[in-house]
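Most newcomers find our protein records easier to grasp once they have seen one. To make this concrete, we reproduce a full record directly below:

===
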Amino acid sequence: MRYEYILFDLDGTLTDPALGISNSIIYALKKYGIEVGERSELFKFIGPPLAESFEKYYGFSEEKANQAVEYFREYYRAQGIFENVIYDGIEELLKTLQEKHRQLLVATTKPEVFAKQILEHFAIAQYFSFIAGSNLDGTRVKKDEVIAYALESCKITDLTKTIMIGDREHDVLGAKKIGIASLGVLFGYGDRAEHEKAGADYIVERVDEIEKIVCAE
């Protein structure tokens, strides 16, 4: 058994949230009179903490970025949360891993309350022993903090049997900071160069490749 404890990112790993997240960002930016050209310009927001992205890509101050996150949530709560689709093969993967007695967890920087709603909506919450996310008050927003919280909550101490699966560098860097292995997926929003630069232990292109790595003897 190579890995016994498997943590999954949510956005870009279990589900494709592009429509809901981009619509929510468009809604928030309109509050500041900012029009977006191509929707694809906003896909870089998927994964990292939202406030950080508003500061990085639009030059917002910390205060302005936090207000933008509140505007984002106005749309997201009402509609954007379910403008989302589960990736093909994900439920089959989760079922197989559970049958092989792996403990599955979610570690996302998305607010925990939203993560639980999404996973329940897609009827895959049942596969996870714990769903860890950030707090709505802006705390526990860094990936390593969320991973640490998940592991502590589940009393997981054998880091050699633990792996983080995600689509962005934040997943890989967060895993490294905690001291666990990482697997980068290319069907989400990060590319191979991003994962390699961050130091991912494994990189896969397809959902069906994940089981082969985490369950290899």
The chain has nine helices and eight strands. The chain has two domains: 5-16+84-214, 18-82.
